[in-house]
Amino acid sequence: MKSISIGSSKLVSSRLAYGCWRIAGTWEPSEVTSDSVKSGIKAVLSAYEAGYTLFDHADIYCHGVAEDVFGKALKQVTGMREKILIATKCGIRFPGEPWSDSPQRYDFSKQHIIDSCEGSLKRLGIETIDLYQLHRPDFLADPDEVAAAFAQLRDTGKVREFGVSNFRPSLLSALQKACPMALVVNQIEISLARLAPFEDGTLDQCLENKMTPLAWSPLGGGVLGLHENNAPPGHKHHVSLNLQETIQAISEARGTSRSVIALSWLLKHPSKIIPIVGSANPKRIQEATQADDLELTRDEWYRLLIAARGERLP
Ligand SMILES: NC(=O)c1ccc[n+]([C@@H]2O[C@H](COP(=O)([O-])OP(=O)(O)OC[C@H]3O[C@@H](n4cnc5c(N)ncnc54)[C@H](OP(=O)(O)O)[C@@H]3O)[C@@H](O)[C@H]2O)c1
To answer: Which of 18, 48, 52, 61 is flagged as catalytic?
Structure first.
């Protein structure tokens, strides 16, 4: 795979990232089995062998088990740590933690950011996190307090670069003003199933500030890879028949899969979006890398946009 710089930093990533949300095979730590751990390790090593060098995590993925599984995978391959970038996130807290009556909440307090980072480092079995992101905006976030936490993590060598996730442009600007370092990514949900960042200023801000957009759920959680009739229940995105047919027609014309078309569509944007591939299936993880070699034409890109919008452009 080709490589790309992350924002204005010295970090260099593969063109597609691998997302570790699903590698424990479940959200529930009590449901994790030795077989699901083996499958998770296999998925991570498949991504590594396929050329992915940016791996995305969060402290909450299966309550830390995903980071733990990744740490086990890392130990199996000599030299892997030095060849990859490890990203993780903090700031979402589960209900019932630490007190039984604690609500679900966001927490960007300095103490929580530092504690969560140390927990991730331990589970991942590493000395330094390459990219540390705030997961979802905390309504009570104080930019100066976040900046102090980031500075401490950088100065103690625990984190190299910082970013955010799911931030609206105005909050990102406020945080950037307070931070002594550049925020280098905004990890956002963007795909043919979610177009909002094209029009709400999020991508404009990435272009203006030379930040890299990381695209989570680039296949809308899988629905863009499927025929609508086969979509499993519970997919949060509805994909219209017209969009399904347009993806299908372009994938047939290009001799590739629907998933590859949906990923290539993101890659074409000038903000240099890095899609985070979330499959745990080694065949699909490998297949997704074909997107890096496929340049959609402007016409193809706009046919897909119009089908995704469900209406003509003004
Ligand atoms: N910052 C945030 O708030 C946030 C939120 C969500 C996710 N993320 C990050 O984004 C990453 C990717 O998200 P995601 O997992 O939702 O990405 P995704 O790539 O849109 O979806 C992956 C899911 O789609 C399924 N899938 C893919 N291709 C398919 C096909 N052709 N047919 C059927 N099913 C197919 C996969 O199943 P198989 O495993 O069976 O292939 C998997 O369950 C996560 O790992 C995480 O790192 C971040």
So the answer is: 61
Known active-site residue 18: no
Residue 305 C-beta-side C-alpha neighbours within 13 Å: 18
CA dist 285 and 199 (Å) reads 30
The Å distance, Cα 218 to ligand 1 centre, comes to 7
- The CATH homologous superfamily of the domain defined by 3-227+270-293: NADP-dependent oxidoreductase domain (3.20.20.100)
Give the model confidence (pLDDT) of 184-227 as tens digits: 999 999 999 999 999 999 999 999 999 999 999 999 999 999 87
- Closest Cα partner for 17 from 308, 306, 292, 281? 292
The closest of 196, 201, 246 to 217, measured between CA atoms, is: 196
CA distances 20 to 67, 79, 171, 206, Å, are: 8, 20, 27, 24
Q: What is the pTM of this model?
A: 0.97
Domain ranges of the chain: 3-227+270-293
